[in-house]
């Protein structure tokens, strides 16, 4: 019985098209990212509660942890800014805008906001300033909500092919290719692909397959010919970049959640210390 079920499952998987398999892999990858975010947050909350129940965290300990976390936030925000610059540079080289400029601009803005917030939180923790921490924690909460929305949008955009903009962009490129050969040469060289869908695109319009469709522009051997279409290759490239963004974004969210909890706890500690100090004078 088990062998029959196994054969049925393998048969079903083998019948999937390449696009369906790619979508399945993307969904699996995004699921792993979300599981890591949720489990990391839960583990921290459990450990934090146990630690608090046993001995409690002192203001100095919280301060040092916050300083470390904000330093890590600065580092990750710089990675995010570098990633967005890479997207903008890549988008500038493309002949058709597939949404890279909008995505790059949004990510670089997020990176700068996180960097400024991390610096502000570092200073607030260093000076043990209750007023600054009261500003810092709500900003972190808003950042967490914004990043969760952006991660969800990135996941949905990857599955939907950025709402058809990729298909539209490559349709425009193919129209240009028909009128003036060479419109796809940049993508064929960059992504090691041929045509929009495959090599049959050129055969259908009775055009000679360009040298950019071959490894090192050597088309004398059939094995040098790229078989994959440029649209599928570009979607794969985009999915990889969005997954990298979500991993960095997920780490940022986990650290921001922990920082917000510790920031709130440090505010409570500072309030209690202030009350005890005033009580001594009464």
Describe this structure in words.
This protein is mostly helical and 282 residues long. It has one domain (57-280). 79% of the residues lie in helices and 0% in strands. The chain has 9 helices and no strands.
Topology:
Layout (H helix, E strand, L loop, with lengths): L1 H14 L2 H37 L4 H35 L6 H28 L2 H30 L5 H15 L5 H7 L8 H5 L25 H52 L1
Helix pairs in contact: 2-9, 3-4, 3-9, 4-5, 5-9
Question: TL;DR of this structure?
Answer:
It is a multi-pass membrane protein. With 282 residues, the chain is mostly helical.
Mean pLDDT value: 77
Q: How do the SSEs run, as a string of H and E?
A: HHHHHHHHH
Helix count, DSSP H or I runs of 4 or more residues: 9
Rg from alpha-carbon coordinates:
26 Å
Main beta-sheet annotation: none
Protein name: Tetraspanin
Organism: Glossina brevipalpis
Pfam families: Tetraspanin (PF00335)
Subcellular location: Membrane
Essential attributes:
mainly alpha; Tetraspanin/Peripherin; 282 residues
């Amino acid at each position: 019985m088990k062998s029959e079920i196994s054969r049925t499952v393998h048969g079903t998987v083998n019948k999937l098209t390449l696009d369906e398999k790619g979508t399945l892999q993307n969904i699996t990858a995004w699921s792993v990212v979300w599981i890591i975010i949720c489990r990391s947050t839960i583990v921290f909350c459990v450990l934090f509660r146990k630690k608090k129940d046993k001995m409690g965290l002192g203001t100095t300990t919280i301060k040092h942890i916050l300083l470390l976390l904000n330093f890590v936030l600065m580092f990750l925000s710089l990675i995010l800014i570098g990633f967005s610059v890479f997207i903008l540079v890549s988008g500038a080289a493309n002949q058709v805008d597939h949404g890279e400029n909008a995505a790059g601009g949004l990510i670089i803005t997020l990176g700068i906001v996180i960097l400024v917030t991390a610096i502000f939180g570092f200073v607030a923790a260093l000076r043990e300033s209750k007023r600054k921490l009261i500003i810092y924690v709500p900003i972190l909460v808003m950042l967490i909500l914004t990043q969760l929305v952006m991660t969800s949008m990135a996941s949905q955009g990857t599955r939907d092919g950025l709402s058809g903009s990729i298909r539209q962009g490559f349709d425009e490129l193919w129209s240009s290719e028909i009128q003036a050969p060479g419109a796809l040469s940049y993508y064929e060289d960059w992504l090691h692909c041929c045509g929009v869908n495959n090599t049959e695109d050129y055969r259908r319009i009775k055009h000679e397959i360009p040298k950019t469709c071959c490894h090192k522009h050597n088309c004398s051997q059939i094995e040098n010919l790229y078989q994959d279409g440029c649209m599928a290759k570009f979607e794969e490239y985009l999915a990889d970049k969005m997954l990298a963004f979500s991993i960095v974004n997920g780490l940022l969210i986990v650290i921001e959640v922990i920082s917000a909890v510790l920031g709130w706890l440090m505010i409570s500690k500072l309030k209690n210390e202030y009350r005890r100090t005033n009580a001594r004078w009464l």
